[in-house]
Amino acid sequence: xxxxxxxxxxxxxxxxxxxxxxxxxxxxxxxxxxxxxxxxxxxxxxxxxxxxxxxxxxxxxxxxxxxxxxxxxxxxxxxxxxxxxxxxxxxxxxxxxxxxxxxxxxxxxxxxxxxxxxxxxxxxxxxxxxxxxxxxxxxxxxxxxxxxxxxxxxxxxxxxxxxxxxxxxxxxxxxxxxxxxxxxxxxxxxxxxxxxxxxxxxxxxxxxxxxxxxxxxxxxxxxxxxxxxxxxxxxxxxxxxxxxxxxxxxxxxxxxxxxxxxxxxxxxxxxxxxxxxxxxxxxxxxxxxxxxxxxxxxxxxxxxxxxxxxxxxxxxxxxxxxxxxxxxxxxxxxxxxxxxxxxxxxxxxxxxxxxxxxxxxxxxxxxxxxxxxxxxxxxxxxxxxxxxxxxxxxxxxxxxxxxxxxxxxxxxxxxxxxxxxxxxxxxxxxxxxxxxxxxxxxxxxxxxxxxxxxxxxxxxxxxxxxxxxxxxxxxxxxxxxxxxxxxxxxxxxxxxxxxxxxxx
Length: 504
Ligand code: GAP
What we know:
Strand content: 25-35%
Structural class: alpha+beta
Bound molecules: glycyl-adenosine-5'-phosphate
Strand order of the largest sheet: 3-12-13-19-16-15-14
């Protein structure tokens, strides 16, 4: 699959109402997207199945839905306020702003040639790669600023404070150094500063005790959450793959120290199985172990679930063994006793019954919006066939698993007269009563309606024709094979329902 396919997916998403550019009529807001009528269904279906698998089907995981804004000390404890930084660099030649750790590398001291202002065809400049060992990703230039740290959290103010006016009052009319101005600004802003969460995870640590005690949970147990996260990404890329506002599906699974290895194996298997059960191309998913130099200092193992996107292998989920780092940090900063007492266990230190310990954590952390992109890429199919006259024609279809498909079936009267719409609407009513999301569609020719539903991933088209009024049978057409079968109307719901559960 090439990047050309990526363009086709982006275009299908807009044309058919899956995903739109945010604020498009105003020229769009970079990297922000709106999920349209079909996209919201696809995203919700993915989230619902994650929740079903992670929470409803397990005894040992419960869910929460925490607020997006949390006490600022949460982010001090988690390290996000001090350490959630990207190294930012400006290219003095073409003015591109980029991340140093993602820039193309080049040997320090190497002589290079690039275009002035980054415009091909303009004068050429000779340069030398600096000690940083990279060049500008846009113009290939070596005339770069120093790296500076850029915090990726979005900051805002809470409460009826006007931090700016306060700061201006202190600054106005005084001859101050830039450092003094910065201090005044920070002093005015910090007391009421709150941050949009950059991950859903921290609420599960901060609410560890409340959840454990209110639900009488026994370790090992997990807390799961789905929700929005925000990161002021310097580079946003590949449509919804990396954006500033996105959704995560995370679980913090608390276990006894020393058992984290077996739980890591458990979660690696569980999570890979979850993606593969929906995938057409199962070989496009793999697990990649982090090298030692990639691991965070508190982590003793980490695996990425990777997918082969149109641009190559990249991450969709990280499964990290985070030791007892987070609970200990929150205990240290908040003063709360974030530990667990197991009466039935012997304390390894004293040999006596009853062991109080800080649980270790395995964290399967997936991107919901990234999963939307993956299942779109996996489903996107172009089929070329020949018609009766030998002319080749291309059929575009989304081979989405029926569980993920926005509509589970389309109910189509062949013509918009002779009682056929009324008969079709009776079927619609029965499907809706059974809780199945279907589309009633009586516009355009039947061929165009089939093509549309292939393109939006509707697994079945159920057509009511003249005979249906007499024999109570309908034609059911399968999206993937385009084969048609005549079935009694009373069986239609069962046929569709069975396919919803296929392979799950
Ligand atoms: N609590 C751990 C954590 O947040 P992460 O690897 O930074 O780990 C987990 O994020 C997942 O969230 C990623 O694997 C990815 O799917 C998704 N994600 C992270 N940043 C994203 C972004 N800017 N846009 C879209 N998805 C993102």
